[in-house]
Design brief:
By secondary structure, this protein is of the alpha+beta class. The protein is built from 7 helices and 8 strands. The strands form 3 sheets. It has a 4-stranded mixed sheet with strand order 1-5-4-2. The chain has a two-stranded antiparallel ribbon with strand order 3-6. Strands 7-8 form a two-stranded antiparallel sheet. The longest helix has 28 residues. It is globular.
């Protein structure tokens, strides 16, 4: 096992994003490998189950909420490791298993994720840009983009909604805090710009970059995530409130 995976840094990071190394707990009420979401029938069956489990009124809402959750479990920690620690976290979809503990004990009906195998990479001296592009490509082309395509079809929900859900989980990784200065802050800005503006659709397995539409310039003319969403994530249909950035209210 790579030393990074036994470090306090990874323990804190994986804890923040509800990740577990190894197998899913045997006491779970439901488990599913992410690779199953690429198959039409298992994907639809899980969405039907999830819809009832989280109290969603439709498959569209369930699909939207699931993409939000997968982006939290997978995208945010991988990008955090890349930007903050220069570590590439590579996982295969069949090694990522969603699991649902008892909702009352867990405090949420949404899934957690267990990683049965993880490969760790780091950039060679002077080659960080190429390494970063490969980390982003693996994350999106090999993992997230195919999931979004399948969930959009299974839930009859707009891909734009699902991609803005992903952006909603990417943005907090790159929010500036006072303690982040110097080289770290410059890397945060550079990585965010690269993903949202500087990359072509090729790194996402698409014709165009699906994140570019969800950016704007802040007061200091830096690229940042939009202060208001362009699309509605549909959360209001299963809760008596709107998201803070919802365009509907």
């Amino acid at each position: 096992m790579d030393p990074f995976l036994t470090s306090d840094t990874w323990q804190e990071l994986s804890g923040d994003y509800s990740l577990k190394m190894g197998d899913a707990p045997s006491s779970c009420v439901k488990t599913l490998a992410l690779s199953e979401l690429l198959k039409e029938e298992p994907c639809r069956a899980y969405l039907e189950w999830l819809k009832e489990h989280i109290g969603s009124p439709s498959l569209s809402v369930a699909s939207s909420m699931l993409v939000k959750r997968v982006a939290f479990l997978l995208v945010a920690p991988i990008l955090s490791a890349m930007t903050y620690y220069d570590k590439g976290i590579k996982v295969e979809l069949d090694q990522c298993r969603l699991f649902h503990p008892n909702a009352s004990a867990a405090g949420t009906a949404f899934p957690f994720m267990a990683l049965s195998d993880v490969q760790v990479t780091a950039p060679e001296v002077g080659k960080r840009d190429a390494w970063r592009a490969e980390v982003v490509r693996q994350l999106f082309v090999e993992s997230l983009s195919p999931i979004i395509k399948r969930l959009a079809a299974a839930g009859s929900v707009s891909k734009a909604i699902l991609w803005e859900n992903v952006m909603a989980r990417i943005n907090p990784v790159y929010v500036h805090h006072e303690a982040q200065e110097g080289e770290q802050w410059r890397r945060m800005q550079d990585d965010f710009h690269f993903m949202t503006i500087g990359s072509s659709g090729e790194l996402f397995g698409m014709r165009r970059n699906p994140l570019s539409s969800f950016t704007e310039l802040d007061a200091e003319h830096r690229i940042t995530g939009r202060s208001k969403r362009l699309t509605c994530c549909l959360y209001y249909q299963m809760a008596p409130e709107y998201c803070l950035k919802c365009p509907k209210p």
